[in-house]
Amino acid sequence: MKRAGALRQVSDFSDFVSGRRLRELLSQCGPGEGRHVQASPDGQHLLLLLRGRLGLQPQVLAFPRLGTGPGDLERSWQPPQPPIMGLLFLQSPAALTSWVLAVISEQGRTEVWGFVPVLGWQLQQSLELCHGARARIVSICSQGSSLVWCEERPPSAAQLDPGRGAFRYCICTRALEVGEQGAHLGAMRIVVHNSPQYQVLASPQHVFLVPTNATFASVSMFLLIWCPREAKVTIVAPSGGFVHSEVLHSSDFKKLVFGSVGLLLSVAPLDIHTCALSSCGGLLLLSTQGTVHLVQPDGTWRHVYDLGGSCLVQGDPVQLKAFGSTLACVLAGVLYLIDLTSGRLIEKKLLSTKEVHFLGSPGRDEEIQLLTPMGIYCFSFSSPEEGGRPEPTLVEMVFEEACKYYQRRSLSSSQLTVEKLKKGDMFQAPIALSSILQHSLPTKERALLSTLSMDLQSYLSLELLKSCIVSASESEVDRCCEELVEQEVSRLLRLDLDRENLAYLNAVFNSFPKASWKAIRGSLQLQQNGDGLLVARTTSDIWKKVLGGPVPHWSQQEEIGFNGVVPLFELICGSLHRFKPKWLPRFVELTQQYVGASWTYSTKEGPEGGVPLYKRALAVLDRQRQRTASERELEIELLLCSARPKAVLQAVHLLIRLRRWQRVVEAAEKFSKLSPLLNKEIFTTLLAQFAQHRDLDPYLAALWELCPADLTVSDILSIVLQHLPSSAGDPAPFSAEGAPLTLALLKPLLHKVAQRQCTQDELYADISQACTPPPSKGRDVTPSCLNFTPDDCTVWE
């Protein structure tokens, strides 16, 4: 199992050539400024691309590590120079360093640079990717030694057609080989022409064509996956579950998607804010709602994680990168670490800066490196069994907390610092504790160190968050409050929810309802699966916290729970009722499933305390003064999802009162299978309704199938006669209001029951004849029920 450690600074740029200048360039942030930071494949160079800095021309700078070799790269261009579209590292086995750097401009001008340890950076060749002078590259990537790009080819004035304006792009590929004689380009191949604008991303085996904001709306509901080795294109529409693959016979875009147009018209457009490649060759998509999905090369896709938060807009800085099986995301100054295999949140940390770039670690896919204006930081994972000295932050936290403690108790006005505490002869407790943490823990007790380290890191993040709130602007206060509430809820769920902690949790929910809902949703991992059903990917410990605590006894006088404190289950139900009411019945059903798997209903020692969960959820609804139509529907769903006989009967009666007959019959068909007694109660109730009015006539065939086996013709006639509507002027069963009840409506049921009764009597007669002497002549053994026909009931006619 992965455990995240603290961020560790591995470089302050002092080990790079011109490190001070690198720090200054990273710290500068002006309006309209664009920066792109990238590390070389061997990790010995940092490449910095500066785009459009306050009207200046673009610049490419390379900062090598000390001892790598002489010379650093600083390339700038004289105006007019088109924008630089990308810095790509290409494989080059014939080169001295096995890789070269390609600097590509918007018009296709490509400069190939190589680094020689003795000479430094050398320009090897300048090439032209595009054939036309008016061509423009909008997106480019590399795959091995080949380049793949999306190229805009504006039509001439004579061929200008407004309908074809959105399909003036083409997807091109070209090999770029570097040898001892220099670099040269292979023949250009157009993969797709007459195409909309796409962003291209290349994995080792596939190329993903992702729609952008400029993509025509009618074709932005799917993406394309091209496999160069198999010459195959896969059309994927994740929101509609559509996947179609075909061999690339024609390079025309319209012919490529023509066979799938009918199916794609009903699919919603893709919601993409940021995309990145995964380590397994898939594509990671982050929506504007904060949801992360993984699209595999074969077109299958799955939900990974929901970051939550407010809606993202284009231009919001988001960093997304996969490190092995871990997804790292920086959003609004918060670092998220997510396990791509299980979809669980490993770690969430508030960073002191929003200017963060991810760097790859050569040979160490699982090691996460972050580049900030202050330096390079490493975030590595370790198992709980691993030993070693604790992080320096842990020891510093011990002395900082000791300073605060002793300062409060000191009578002196002088400020106590960590340095004084370490050097002085007094206050030996923190020094002893630090020594224990570093040296004296046995191997079997390292778990204590890990637990304490996590807690101290949590407190450190909390203090950092508080300081951010003090200095934050008004627009950032809400985000900081949400982060604070999330940390508090997560911390409380790790503790024993005694009365004090539960009262504090109630105060948090009452003061910050929306932030509390987001926090509890993240802790329980409440989300919808591919079938649209609510699932909860949480641990059994969290479920026990949800179901623990005293069960309140609601009354009309009390609007809060047990001694003014509402248990956690009722708090969650209240949040669901306020923000996601459609999820409430399914949440109660999930909770019942956990209860059924952990405790038996035959005992009252379970977490329900003898009160069914659906009644506890209904009690939350009962606190509302007036019940709306949607809340009545929610009440019915809660009663039905419990699958308890009394609750099901109550729901059936509510549906009858609302005269929703189709829903009544559907519920009867579903829940009559639970037990014969419940089946008989439901059928008797519906038969009584049938005798009173004609609203159930369209559903009689389904209703007669529910007839219990132990009901006789006499029982049915008795129920019908008891519930006939009374009328003073008309003879029963006729009524002056509405259509009368006729024998034709009841005849199929009576005939069915009579046949079943005769079959039972015949079986009984055969058993009796085998066990007793034969009857004397003239004795009639014919069952009396066989002599019954519904036509003999003249009273009905």
TrEMBL record:
One of its GO terms (cellular component) is lysosomal membrane. Pfam families: HPS6, HPS6_C. One of its GO terms (molecular function) is GTP-dependent protein binding. Residues 1-378 form the BLOC-2 complex member HPS6 N-terminal domain. It comes from the Eukaryota. SUPFAM superfamilies: YVTN repeat-like/Quinoprotein amine dehydrogenase. One of its GO terms (biological process) is blood coagulation. Residues 396-776 form the BLOC-2 complex member HPS6 C-terminal domain. This is HPS6 biosis of lysosomal organelles complex 2 subunit 3.
